[in-house]
């Protein structure tokens, strides 16, 4: 689902395909953005030799609209990596190059032809703004409008979106081991962080989606009514789902005044919900189930929910209640096959898999169970 790429560190290694000179490659500096330093090349001699760069196979036969190349900017919210919880926003941006596409090597230097970044193309004399979110005009469309356009062209957009969803899930799983390790090392509570990713997708001439890159800091600036229509609800929902928690160590007079101002008994979360220490019983349960096959855990893991289990499930359902337009792509009752792609089985992924299996089609029944457990204050119990 991604184009072949290499990470070159000169002068240690020199990797190049026999097809060099015939195939085209994109070179880009690592950890960059907005098209900075990106070029399309076809010769080894065109590659800088004194700095680390990423070399990515160039997709020479992209799908064109009006003769121009374009890409899709998707917005993906990850609220947790253990368990992995991934949400895909149903709208996004379609960004067009401002010069019509030509795959002849004599045009490789034309960045306005080969790159779709808004920050590059907005400087073009050919660039046309689109201030209407429902219009297929100009050099920027919404993904929703784009899908309507494709449907009119006879494209199976449900199949296409399913393929895009697959790329999103696999991309997050690919980065899961490293991110999960760093998250565990650098955070003290599961409520500390979330990430909104900007994922760029390119469609080839056969409508197959390919992953271009993942941006950890997607631009949320809104320079037009179209941008506002997409990003406004997006940002609002992200904050609602993240559920910002006031720190419990605020001065008491601030806590008291704010609670009174907003009409609450308390505004800080019970500190017991933030604890990550497991009891011996919880450790034993996690060790047991993490090593079981799906048919051996799918029914039993929910039979005797521990306080830690309840806290995770409450967080999950609270988050879902605020998801609004976001589509939950992982976990669902149908995504258990992706568990085979993880480096190691993680207990919380198995817990949510079983929860989706049992309550995915009847969330209210699952929520009612959690209400009863919380009424009994199971979620607040801590190891002795």
Automatic annotation (TrEMBL):
Biological-process GO terms, alphabetical: microtubule cytoskeleton organization
Tree of life domain: Eukaryota
GO molecular function, one term: ATP binding
Coiled coil spans: none
Pfam family, one: TTL
Gene3D superfamilies xrefs: ATP-grasp fold, B domain
InterPro entries according to UniProt: TTL/TTLL_fam (IPR004344)
Keyword annotations: ATP-binding, Ligase, Nucleotide-binding
CC annotations in GO: ciliary basal body
Family matches, as PANTHER family: TUBULIN MONOGLUTAMYLASE TTLL4, TUBULIN POLYGLUTAMYLASE
Protein name stated in the entry: Uncharacterized protein
Species of the source: Bracon brevicornis
């Amino acid at each position: 689902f991604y184009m072949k790429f290499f990470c070159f560190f000169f002068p240690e290694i020199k990797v190049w395909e026999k097809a060099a000179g015939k195939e085209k490659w994109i070179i880009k500096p690592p950890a960059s953005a907005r098209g900075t330093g990106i070029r399309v090349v076809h010769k080894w001699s065109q590659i800088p030799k004194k700095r680390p760069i990423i070399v990515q196979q160039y997709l020479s036969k992209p799908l064109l609209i009006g003769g121009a190349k374009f890409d899709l900017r998707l917005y993906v919210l990850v609220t947790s990596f253990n368990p992995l919880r991934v949400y895909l926003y149903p709208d996004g941006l379609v960004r067009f190059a401002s010069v019509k596409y030509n795959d002849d090597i004599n045009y490789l230097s034309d960045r306005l032809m080969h790159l779709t970044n808004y920050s590059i193309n907005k400087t073009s004399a050919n660039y046309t703004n689109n201030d209407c979110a429902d219009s297929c005009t100009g050099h920027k469309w919404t993904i929703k409008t784009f899908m309507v356009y494709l449907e009119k062209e006879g494209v199976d957009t449900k199949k296409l979106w399913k393929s895009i969803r697959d790329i999103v899930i696999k991309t997050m799983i690919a980065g899961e081991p490293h991110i999960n390790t760093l998250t565990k090392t650098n955070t003290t509570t599961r409520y500390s962080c979330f990430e909104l990713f900007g994922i760029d997708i390119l469609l080839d001439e056969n409508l197959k989606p390919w992953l271009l890159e993942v941006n950890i800091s997607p631009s949320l600036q809104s320079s037009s009514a179209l941008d506002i229509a997409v990003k406004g609800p997006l940002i609002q929902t992200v904050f609602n789902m993240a559920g910002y928690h006031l720190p419990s160590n605020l001065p008491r007079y601030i806590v008291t005044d704010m609670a009174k101002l907003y009409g609450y008994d308390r505004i800080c979360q019970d500190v017991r919900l933030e604890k990550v220490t497991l009891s011996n019983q919880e450790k034993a349960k996690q060790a047991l189930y993490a090593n079981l096959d799906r048919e051996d855990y799918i029914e039993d893991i929910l039979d005797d929910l521990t306080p830690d289990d309840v806290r995770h499930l409450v967080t999950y359902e609270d988050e879902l209640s605020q998801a609004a337009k976001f589509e939950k792509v992982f976990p669902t009752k149908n995504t258990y096959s992706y568990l085979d792609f993880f480096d190691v089985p993680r207990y919380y992924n198995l817990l949510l898999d079983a929860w989706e299996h049992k309550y995915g089609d009847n969330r209210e029944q699952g929520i009612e169970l959690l209400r009863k457990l919380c009424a009994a204050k199971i979620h607040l119990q801590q190891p002795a």
